[in-house]
Amino acid sequence: MSRPQDPTFHNYSQPGAALPVVAPHGGQPMPLVPMGAPPTGGLVKRRNPLAVWLGLPLITLGIYSLVWYYKIHREMADVTRKPDAPVAGPMLVLLLLGWTGIALLVSFFRTGNRIAEAQRAAGLAQTCNPFIGLLLCFVFGLQTAYYQSELNKIADATSSVGVRAAPHFS
Q1: Are the CB atoms for 87 and 77 separated by under 8 Å?
Q2: Rg (CA), the chain
Q3: Residues near 89 by Cβ (< 8 Å), separated by ≥ 6?
Q4: What pLDDT, on a 0 to 100 scale, did the predictor assign at position 84?
Q5: What's the sign of the alpha-carbon dihedral 57, 137, 43, 127?
């Protein structure tokens, strides 16, 4: 049985089809973003590694560390464009299973792998080493500064493209 011809119907499941982006609150619509296109600027936020590692966690009594961990996983999911990429799970591991120690180390190691995958997805050389991140866990928790400096490489590379990304509203 064939689908009736509807002039307003468009099959967005075909490769290369552009998805429409709805303008928030009646503003100007964002440009269409083709599926499977390389990542564009604005997906990964550039942050100061020293502030992420020491400054903001001290000011917020450690809460910023959880917020940062969630945000970087959200950004990496946007860069790799994987619908099944973990976003809240790694942050919940820190929050609920951090007391075990082993779950914490496994989560940090997997985060290093995800950053390396995001670097590949952004068209960069894979410079993030999860083993270095794991070792830095034992040196004053420096894995946070290391991982943020690796994410800043993605932010610098994608922002130099000069293309504005369609925002996600969450």
Answers
A1: yes
A2: 19
A3: none
A4: 84
A5: positive
Q: What is the predicted pLDDT for the residue at 55? A: 94
User: Residue 22 has which token pair?
Assistant: 């709805």
Residue with tokens 């928790």: 141
Encoded amino acid at 81, one letter: R
Cβ atoms of 113 and 147 closer than 8 Å? no
Six-digit token string for 8: 């307003």
| Cβ-based neighbours of 126, under 8 Å, separated by 6 or more | 116, 119, 120
The size of the chain, in residues, is: 170
**Structure-token pair, residue 53:** 């590692």
110 token code pair: 């997997």
Residue type for position 116: A
Residue 120 three-state SS: helix
Report the distance separating Cα 23 and Cα 36, nearest Å.
22
Tell me the C-alpha distance between 115 and 30, whole Å.
Answer: 28
Q: For residue 33, give the 3-state DSSP assignment.
A: strand
pTM: 0.69
pLDDT digits (tens, 9 = 90+) for 46-70: 999 999 999 999 999 999 999 999 9
Helices (H), ranges, the chain: 49-50, 56-59, 63-80, 88-97, 102-121, 130-136, 143-159
Reported as a single tens digit per residue, the pLDDT across 148-159 is 999 999 999 988
